[in-house]
Amino acid sequence: MPRSGESKGVGDLARPSKPLISRSSAAEAALEVIDELGLEELSLSHVARKLGVRPPSLYHHFTDKSELLQEVARIMLARMPTVDGAPPSFEEQIIARCVLTRRTLLKHPNAAPLILRYFPRHLLLAAYERAASEEPYPTTIQLTVIDAIEKYTFGTALFEASARARGVDPMPPVDGAKFPSLAQAIADNPFGDEELFVESLRMFLVGVRQRLATGSVGRPLDTAG
Q1: Which domain, by its residues, includes 71?
Q2: pTM of the model
Q3: What CATH number has the domain bearing residue 67?
Q4: How far apart (Å, rounded) are the C-alpha atoms in residues 95 and 87?
Q5: How crowded is residue 62: how many other Cβ atoms within 10 Å of its Cβ?
Q6: Does one domain contain both 116 and 22?
Q7: CA nearest 68: which of 24, 21, 36?
Q8: Would residue 8 count as lying in a domain?
Q9: Is 134 a member of any domain?
Q10: In this structure, are 52 and 160 located in the same domain?
Q11: Which of 38, 90, 165, 213 has the greatest number of beta carbons closer than 10 A?
């Protein structure tokens, strides 16, 4: 500690003696900056300005920008809402939770890639435990179902979020003369983006039910049933 009359060192001046902000408030501010400016434009200076403090204040909670981004990913997952009411079937309960997860990520398209970069899977262990305890499936396929649903939900949400962040449609314009079958499939598709997501999940879950009923789990499709 410097004596009376001596100047403090550079490190003492750079870091306040006590935290001026909380870890969560800094992450919330970072998320706001990302929403407004984009992920690539995020800087500690922008976050500090949003909080009304100097950048060194952030170092009470984060060693670097990467650690701050990890916390942003964590709070995004923590915001996932719960399903209101009771859907008519277990499969529809799964779908309802997946839809809410997707909507939450799409509220922050600029920040959504952080879920992939810093996926805090340890925060989801309780959700995995609940799924395993509630699923009416044999334990031999529970992990298959959990893994497939998780990857599909987060994967499709991140794909659409990326398109939104860039201001483009998820599916580019298709030349009907060059790609007639694809153009027809797009024209005949009756579903919006969320409806398409829901129907895809329903098809998957019906497939799970069918393969269990026919004892075809683990067998190629051409020999199933």
Answers
A1: 14-78
A2: 0.82
A3: 1.10.10.60
A4: 9
A5: 19
A6: no
A7: 24
A8: no
A9: yes
A10: no
A11: 165
pLDDT digits (tens, 9 = 90+) for 113-164: 999 899 878 888 888 898 899 889 999 999 999 999 999 999 999 999 999 9
Listed residue (87, 92, 93, 75) closest to 130, CA to CA = 93
Cβ contact 111:30 at 8 Å: no
Block residue for tokens 């201001």: 167
In single-letter form, the type of residue at position 72 comes to: V
Q: What is the CATH number of the domain that holds 153?
A: 1.10.357
In total, how many domains does the chain have? 2
The amino acid present at 138, given as its one-letter code, is: P
* 115 lies in the same domain as 218: yes
Helices 65-78 and 44-51: angle between axes, nearest 10 degrees: 60
CB 59 within 8 Å of CB 12: no
Q: Say whether both 170 and 191 belong to one domain.
A: yes
Burial class of residue 9, CB neighbours in 10 A (0-12, 13-18, 19+):
exposed
pLDDT for position 59: 87
Predicted confidence (pLDDT) per residue in 7-35, tens digit: 444 344 455 555 568 999 999 999 999 99
DSSP 100-127: HHHHHHHT-TTTTHHHHHT--GGGGHHH
